[in-house]
Amino acid sequence: MALKPWEIAVKLLPLESGPVSVELASDAQFQAWMDASGLNDLVDDDGIAGWSFDDRVRVINFAIKQGRTLNFADENNSNNSVSKTEPELFEGDKPASEAM
After folding, report:
1. Residue boundaries of the structural domains of the chain
2. Exposed e or buried b for every residue in 44-79, given b needs 16+ CB within 10 A?
3. What pTM was computed for the model?
4. How confident is the model at residue 46 (pLDDT cuts 50, 70, 90)?
5. Are the C-beta atoms of 65 and 85 separated by less than 8 Å?
6. Residue-wise DSSP of 55-98
């Protein structure tokens, strides 16, 4: 099961400084989460100096495919579950044509 980019973007990394979303985490914060999660072996050398969002999506989905347990702050340490589905994310939103 691969997660969609928008599902990954909102996941919160449990960092010592406080939770931060995968999308907004600095490269150093994302690498720290990778190290703490024991995912270092999924990338070459000592990680990636500049983690693009696409890189983050790829490594998270690869880890899921490998059966790794990923800890996100918003999931009470349940592994790889999606906390909200796409329809739930947009509940209550009106289409642009109705918003005016």
Report:
1. 5-89
2. eeebbeebeeeebbbbbbebbeeebebebbebeeee
3. 0.70
4. low
5. no
6. HHHHHHHHHHHTT-----GGGTT-SS--SS-HHHHTTTPPPHHH
